[in-house]
Amino acid sequence: MSEQPSNDSVGQRCQITREDFICQRIEIQKLREGENLILGFSIGGGIDQDPGQNPFSEDKSDKGIYVTRITPGGPAEVAGLRIGDKIMQVNGWDMTMVTHDQARKKLTKKREDVVRLLITRKSLEEAVKHSKGSHPRQ
Amino acid sequence: MLSPTVMEEGDEVLQVLEVGEAVEEVKEVIISTIEEEIRRSSPLNSKTSQDDNWGETTTAVTGTSEHSLSQEDIVRITKDLEDSVGLDCRRYVTRSIAVILGLLVFFTPLAFLVLPHILWPDKQQRCETACEGLVISVAFKLLILLLAVWALFFRPARAGLPRVFVFRILLAVLVLLFVTSYWLFYSVRILHSQDPDYKDIVQYAVSLVDALLFIHYLAVVLLELRQLQPCYSVCVTRATDGETRHYNLGQLSIQRAALAVIEHYYCDFPIHNPALLSASKSRAAKHLAGLKVYNVDGPGNNASAGIAQSQSRAMIAAAARRRDTSHNELYYEEAEHERRVRKRRARLVVAVEEAFTHIKRMQEEEPKKAPGDVMDPREAAQAIFPSMARALQKYLRTTKQQHCHSMESIQQHLAFCITNKLTPKAFLEGYLTPGPTLQYGKDHWLGRRWTLISEASVTSGLKDGSVFLLKCVDFCLVVTSRKIPYVQMSEEYIDPKSHKFVLRLQSETSV
Fold first, then answer.
1. Smallest Cβ distance to B507: which of A41, A71, A100?
2. Which terminal Cβ of chain B has fewer Cβ within 10 Å, N or C?
3. Do B111 and B180 belong together in one domain?
4. Closest CA to B17 of B349, B303, B290, B258
5. Which of B380, B383, B391, B322 is nearest to B351 (CA)?
6. Are B289 and B8 in contact (CB under 8 A)?
7. Which domain holds residue B138?
8. Do A104 and B511 touch (CB under 8 A)?
9. ipTM score for this prediction
10. Dihedral angle at the C-alpha atoms of B248, B254, B258, B264, nearest 10 degrees?
């Protein structure tokens, strides 16, 4: 798994699982509600789920973890997570080939206050293309 | 036919003019030549007088109507000839040969048993128990053989086929050889040497009867069982309107396959209705009527084939150039016809249902009505027929079926339906859809005389790709056969416990 060194910038190219994606890094601070630490979004997907019913994926055989709901005003929305984002990594753990339950566990570790997600979004690709088109650098 | 604008002789010039008038000149030429031919070939027939009006009422494609006329003449002539010589002659000959053979076969064992007693009445030993048992078995086996031969061979002949039936000839020859050899042996060894041992003679007779039973078994297998397993699939197409059916046949000779096809034809194919073909003929006539073709070289030259070819090529070229709107006419005509048929059908159904409500079956328990009121089925049919007659007649005329049903036949059918408690819908079924030829009266079974036309010999077996024609008076059936392919089937075992299912999951977890 090769990665380029990153900042919190949009339009980063990263290569995971031999495919090229435009990724974004998002850092979410967990919010404490009573006993639980919540992030404020819901996930769907996983290698044990049916990929055909995922409304957000472009390729209907994609078994990755997707963001299906965002609590308005929650930590995830504040950090910049959007509905339909595909989560590629959580704190360095790969999320492209995990079961639904494994993904949930990685996100809800009680000892961690912060989760750093690597996500990809369809609109990111288009934004990069637009910016490249207007400022041809390469 | 000389066109006034061409000057030189020997110049083959064809002028194709697009004229919209009727092509009377061309028609007359065609008519007269073929009529001459008919007159030459059938001196018996006085029907072919030159009808002046005939040219105007027939279409330019005179081929079909003339050929059907001349073919009817030929069929009539050959029928006269054959009746005088007798196709029945052959049938009687075969039947008499069969009877003689049967008597020979039946009486030979009896003769074997009886002759020693007649020839040497003094020299015979007594017949012991075993010997008597054998005599009884001979008697019963002969009885069984008699019944079996009667069941297999003495059935009414279904058809007269053009050539003899090869397997039967084979079996007859085999039986004849067999019986002859037994007689030879008997006369040489027993009669000459005057063998006194009666048991031997009885055993000899028993062996003959056993062998005859086995030959009968061979006959059953060859004549009846061998063609039961389907081997070829034949496709039967009627030449006039394209009706096609497919049948599976076993290994048969071409003439037996043709017979099977004809028997299926009578049950399966809807009746041949020449009135339905007139529409396409008139369309074809309209295509040709617009063109007038002149042969400027004069009649009687020897390039007639070339002329015909160039004529038709010229016509095709002209037709391609002309903008043809006949497809439009066809479409609207068919739509209109469909609508008319449906309307008449609706009226007919309502009329028949109403007519059927006028009568009801009288129950036995009802108090007796006056004898004038009680009717038998025929009278009841006659009573309700007038209310539906007009609607039925109009419908039949629209669908061009009126020649298939006479008034008498309709009333008979109505009486039949009333007697057997058929509903109005069941009564109408025979008129709404054209049924198989069997359904109509005997006079509609056009020509029980069929001609088999085949390039291969008719006693040779059916093969893959063999084609033959069955010609009747009005139409032709084209039969092609295909071999049923060898099927290689493999098995796959499914464990009944292997049918397991899981739910399709789509969970959403909030974190």
1. A100
2. N
3. yes
4. B290
5. B391
6. no
7. 84-227
8. yes
9. 0.73
10. -10
- pTM metric for this prediction: 0.63
CATH for A22-122? 2.30.42.10
Measured at the CA of B27, the angle between CA B53 and CA B34, to 5 degrees, comes to 90
Q: Which two tokens stand for residue B11?
A: 């110049």
Structure tokens at B97: 């040969």
Q: Residue with structure tokens 């000389």?
A: B2
Phi then psi for B313, rounded to 5 degrees?
-65, -40
B279 and B408 belong to one structural domain: yes
* Percent of residues in chain A assigned helix, strand, coil, to nearest 5: 20, 35, 45
- Whether B91 is covered by a domain: the verdict is yes
- Among the partner-chain residues A49, A50, A107, the one whose CB lies closest to the CB of B511 is A107
Burial class (CB within 10 angstroms; exposed 0-12, middle 13-18, buried 19+) of B292:
buried
Neighboring chain A residues of B510 at a CB cutoff of 8 Å: 38, 41-43, 69, 71
Give which of A38, A42, A105 to mutate to test B binding, by max B Cβ within 10 Å. Answer: A42
pLDDT in tens, chain B (511 residues): 444 444 444 443 333 333 334 334 333 222 223 334 444 444 444 444 445 555 455 444 444 444 444 555 565 665 555 555 556 787 788 888 888 988 998 899 999 888 888 887 776 677 788 888 999 999 999 999 999 988 988 888 778 888 888 898 999 999 999 999 999 998 888 777 777 788 888 898 999 999 999 999 999 999 899 989 999 999 999 999 899 999 999 999 999 999 999 999 988 998 888 888 887 888 878 777 766 666 666 665 555 556 667 777 777 777 666 667 778 888 999 999 999 999 999 999 999 999 999 888 877 766 666 666 788 889 989 999 999 999 999 999 999 888 888 889 999 999 999 999 999 999 999 899 888 888 887 766 656 789 999 999 988 999 999 999 999 888 899 999 999 999 999 999 999 999 998 777 778 888 8
Q: Are residues B280 and B222 in the same domain?
A: no
Q: Is B510 helix (H, G, I), strand (E, B) or coil?
A: strand
The shortest CB-CB distance from A41 to any of B505, B507, B511 is to B511
**Contact status of B507 with chain A (Cβ, < 8 Å):** yes
